[in-house]
Amino acid sequence: MTPRRLVLAVSSALAAALVLAGCTVGPGGAAPHSTSDPSSGPGNAGTGDDQDDMDGVLLDDGRMFAIVSWGSSTCVPQIEDVSADGQRVSVTLVEPEADGATEQACTADLAPRASLGALPEGVDPTKDVTLVVTAADLIDEIDVEGDPDATAAPGSSTEYQPSAAWFDDGGLVLLTWGSSGCPPVVESAEADGSTGTVTFVTDENQACTMDMAPRGTVIEFPEDDVDDDAPFQLTLVGGGLDGTVEVR
Question: What is the DSSP letter of 28?
Fold first, then answer.
């Protein structure tokens, strides 16, 4: 676990949050849509050895977490059950089901995907958390470093701010809020030392559902392009997400 696996503070709010300011993500709840895009960055093709690897990060100022797994970019595992015993959080990952079908057709690529869930009440996000993940016949334990600067309590109302956290030296999970039917699609991503820019596809004619949901997007940069010794600022461009996310 690298020190970059910390929740990132955010400075810009989504305008859509003003419409649904009363919504919350309940304790232990699973995010309805966790997304990943196969074009999010270099190195996402992965290898066969990556398939069973999982990582975890804390998001939303300590209210939420993401599990990064490898597999088809179009079939992101969903978090079905979450429970906690102290700082140990048990999580069940299930494969998504297609509407009206027993199996969902998945692309044959191998990409990192972000599955989102809410931390149960009673977990202290300022201290280290162990995610005990069950996915089919695989059980894995992921040690996630606590964020001493987290100020939110699991189960409290979200402020609908974007946030992000590193899951390795060149990859991060970005949490944004908006329509579950129109998850962010990465057009390009580049980094230079302590700054990075991710540009999203903007489609003004796209029909979107009118809900407000958390969306997790994996963004990857070449490790040599990121300065490990400096705070990192990520600029979001396009897709209705314009703003910045600061690394604490």
Answer: T
